[in-house]
Amino acid sequence: MSLFQKTKSMNRIIYLVAGFALMFMMLLTVADVIMREFDKPIIGTYELVGLSAAVVIGFCIPYTTSLKSHISVDFFTMKLKDRTKNVLLLITRVFATVLFFLIAYNLLLMGRDLYRSGEVSLTIKMPFYPVAIGIGICCFVQTWTLLVDFIDIARKKS
Q1: What sign for the dihedral angle of Cα 15, 73, 107, 103?
Q2: Which residue range forms the structural domain that includes residue 20?
Q3: CA–CA separation, 79 vs 99, rounded Å?
């Protein structure tokens, strides 16, 4: 199994977490709407849906990258030669790798600060730090995915 395939498998596991979070969000929202009809809304639905949405978005990024399902604008590059396109792809991968590394590092610092301060949500008193740390870890996985993609593009270039 190639490095790219191993990375894709790892990303698929993270993607499953995002899928469960999305399913939880959907079920919670439906249950809250039904319970509101009986004047018994579920307390903290807004907070839980918001935190779950952050998990869904953050945990989907690496798998989307490994599938190459992200948005790309080929309008400017479609007339370029393959070699020039690959050079541009390599440059963008370097910038994206640095960006996601910085995001990951800062999210982990933020998670540490949230843990130390004991900051929690208003209604259900759920701590914020697990979400920040989880998304930070996913951004590190995204950094790895971009590095593997960089290697894959560089090999095709030669």
Answers
A1: positive
A2: 3-157
A3: 28
What DSSP string describes the chain? --HHHHHHHHHHHHHHHHHHHHHHHHHHHHHHHHHHHTT-PPTTHHHHHHHHHHHHHHHHHHHHHHTT-S----TTTTTS-HHHHHHHHHHHHHHHHHHHHHHHHHHHHHHHHHHHHT-B-TTT--BSHHHHHHHHHHHHHHHHHHHHHHHHHHHHH-
Task: Say what the pLDDT of residue 84 is.
Answer: 87
pLDDT in tens, 42-70: 999 999 999 999 999 999 999 999 888 87
Q: How many folded domains does the chain comprise?
A: 1
